[in-house]
Amino acid sequence: MSEENSGEDLFDLEGQVAFVSGASRGLGEHFAEVLAAAGCDVVVTSRDKKSLQLVEDRIEGLGRRCQSVELDVTDHESIRKAVDEAIIGFGKIDIVVCNAGCNRRKPSVDVTWEDWDYVVDTNLKGSFFLAQETAKRSMLEAGHGRIIMIGSVTSVHGYAGLAPYGASRGGIRQLVMSLADDWGPAGITVNCLAPGWFKTQQNAMMYEDEGWVEYLSERIPLRRPGNMEDLDGALIFLASESSRYVTGQTLLVDGGISTGRLRAMPKEK
Ligand SMILES: NC(=O)c1ccc[n+]([C@@H]2O[C@H](COP(=O)([O-])OP(=O)(O)OC[C@H]3O[C@@H](n4cnc5c(N)ncnc54)[C@H](OP(=O)(O)O)[C@@H]3O)[C@@H](O)[C@H]2O)c1
Q: How far is the CA of 265 from the centre of ligand 1 (A)?
């Protein structure tokens, strides 16, 4: 082991400031708490500041500082204001998790112009401009930063009924490669954390389908949908020193569903 690494906790985030979009519920709320537990002070954001109170209380309960900030990622001015508030509050942003996102499930022939803008603007445009603002306001000058964008199995596979969503998540996979090339020389890493199936408000209607979990589990090599905690290791890895030589990558945390589950053996009799 080199001198440089001896005694270093590669996963420690003590003293870091993390900014999480879409932290009012679901994965974003969980990400904010996991980063706080690992040592970060956290800026939590959503379109409705009031909905952040519980997560703010829990993070402060861990002994970390937390600031709730209103943010609509489809509004450029709102992104500028939210990042500005975070910098005023904490002086810097070391880690940004571009998590805010949405979906509209429908057959491709029924997708409207407005559906497309709603989904793609939130998931792709919003993530890009949030990353750009944090880079401009803090990371480029600091000479370091961790940008984590959220992908999905639709970043690598096509699914009927999810055309705009899949386009936005495929776009994220491409975007992290471009930004990694752009900002790597400045010490910033940009990666995509791509969850498989995790039950949240966004996909709750799928779980109302009788037999859905069984159907899904049969297609997942690890035989179950994800629990939020299954994402913790990947999140901390991408946020911390442990991933210092990893950039432009998409890390699928999906129980293996993206390996493809086509039956290629004769059915057992
Ligand atoms: N759940 C899964 O299995 C799964 C799998 C792969 C990827 N993802 C992605 O992971 C992210 C989180 O998903 P989730 O399942 O936790 O969804 P969720 O429960 O619906 O939460 C979405 C979050 O995004 C915020 N948001 C939505 N539109 C926004 C906007 N225009 N500006 C700012 N914030 C906005 C919401 O906050 P407000 O409504 O309070 O503003 C909320 O906090 C999404 O990008 C989703 O596509 C989820």
A: 38
